[in-house]
Design goal:
Layout lengths: L5 E4 L3 H12 L7 E4 L14 E2 L13 E4 L6 H4 L4 H5 L3 E4 L6 H8 L4 E6 L9 E7 L5 H12 L2 E5 L6 H9 L1 H18 L4 H21 L4 H8 L5 H9 L5 H18 L3
Parallel strand pairs: 1-2, 1-4, 2-3, 4-5, 5-6, 7-8
Antiparallel strand pairs: 6-7
Helix pairs in contact: 6-11, 7-8
């Protein structure tokens, strides 16, 4: 995995998912340091490569790319200690929701080489999807390095319009939570219909997981897969009359995605 030397700043759920993906792709621990003040059960190969913050980085280790995996609310406190790497032309790969290229230019300098991206939590099973946009100072090698790091945990889509990152965050970044909520809602409805609680949850989990795998493997559009399950006048059709009504699930999702998009813009700072 030819990505140069990496400093991973923050190693929570998403940071760890990415780290594990990199190691699976052959990243050498000697090419990495992890800046994380509260490390918890990190992969064995990198446990000796953990520092509490970037000021503890050995002087002979100069990162080619700094991966910012801290929460958006923590970014202000982290960036001042990283400015020297920006001045040395290191690339920065951010996975923080809402933090714009303009924001990073303000904190790291106007010529900072920043890639802004939005992955999602299926990265932990290497089934994530990420949308990324490169700032104007990012060179082809730095973009390729960022692409390799992101592809280690799933698909990558590159865009030129940074404003798309806000609805991307709403749809795919936050999207796994919507799917998990669907499982909860299906199970709760099953219980109300008379199923034992453990059976209802087992059925809901397996149905959503299996349907997702079917969708992943199929070349048919989601609408066609839905139609394939729906017999005219049958039970599925009756349920879809409710879900697809004017006040049904589409209206709810429109409101939810709009709310998440709005919040992503508020986080820009």
């Amino acid at each position: 995995m030819a990505t140069g030397k990496i400093l991973l700043v923050g190693c929570g759920k998403m940071g760890r998912a990415m780290l594990e993906g990199w190691l699976e792709q052959g990243l050498k621990p000697a090419d990495l340091y992890v800046a994380e003040p509260h490390p918890s059960d990190l992969p064995v190969p990198v446990r000796q490569r953990v520092i509490s913050d970037s000021t503890k980085l050995p002087r002979d280790f100069r990162p080619d790319i700094v991966v910012l995996a801290v929460k958006p609310q923590s970014m202000d406190g982290v960036l001042p200690g990283l400015r020297s790497f920006a001045d040395a032309n290191a690339a920065f790969l951010s996975i923080a929701a809402g933090k714009t290229l303009t924001y990073f230019a303000k904190h790291l300098g106007p010529l900072a080489r920043v890639v802004r991206s939005m992955p999602n939590t299926p990265a932990s099973v290497r089934q994530g999807i990420t949308v990324a946009v490169a700032g104007p100072s990012v060179d082809p090698v730095q973009r390729q390095r960022s692409d390799s790091l992101l592809k280690a945990v799933g698909e990558v889509i590159w865009v030129d319009d940074e404003s798309l990152l806000d609805p991307v965050t709403a749809v795919s970044g936050s999207g796994p939570a919507y799917v998990f909520l669907l499982v909860e809602a299906m199970a709760a409805a099953g219980i109300k219909a008379g199923l034992p609680a453990d059976m209802a949850m087992r059925l809901a989990r397996a149905t959503v997981a299996g349907s997702g795998e079917l969708l992943r493997r199929s070349t048919e559009p989601a609408a066609q897969l839905r139609q394939n399950v729906t017999s005219p006048g049958g039970t599925t059709a009756e349920a879809l009359k409710v879900l697809m009504a004017d006040d049904g699930v589409q209206q709810i999702f429109d409101k939810a995605i709009a709310a998440a998009t709005r919040r992503s813009r508020e986080l820009a700072g």
